Amino acid sequence: MTKDLKFFLFVAFWCSVTAFSQDLSVKYSFIKNGLSIKDYNLDIQKDHSLFYDSEYCLDNINIKSQLIILKDNSSEIKVLDKAGDVSVSTRKQIQLNWRMINETKIIENYTCQKAEVIYGNKKWIVWFTNDLPFQDGPFVFKGLPGLILVAESEQYKFELLEINKSLNKQCSIKQEGRKELSYDKYQSLFDNITNKNNNLLNSISNLGLKLETDFRSMSEKETKNNAIRELL
């Protein structure tokens, strides 16, 4: 190999590493039983990533869903959320024992490899690409040698919508001032909120207060917000 060729290969390698050292923003569609529920963003930065409802970044004070998953190089995730007017946070250990499968396909012009994992008593199949060497993906998924473009179980699916090489500068996610809960208490909190909302809807229906349509619409929005909490 000539010195010129060695130098060219070194420069090409260095440029590829430099190109992928920048931040990345990825948008996914969250699908349940074949129906699109919400869009979620994955913002990948130098030492951590944030996965959150795409509407969170919009200038809309009526946005209630604030579930955000913060991932770093540790074996746990940090969950930031909001229960009514109270901002809360919790942590959860995540164990992902990936099994690589010798199968590939093209997704949005990226060559992807198949892998699978058991998480939350569900078998998940994912497709990741080495063309984007970010060891991250939607929801809690991470740790493969490339960006996960699609992740799906029997009932749920995260599907790639778009990839941007710059982050949404509108997003300002505050971690300070949140009430820290154990993961068990976090689960109980939102289980109780869901049960109260369901009971209130049933009461309104039984009393014939003509508020059922409005409250049902609010309840459906909250159900969409809870859909991803079911998976945690």
UniProtKB/TrEMBL annotation:
Protein name: GLPGLI family protein
Domain of life: Bacteria
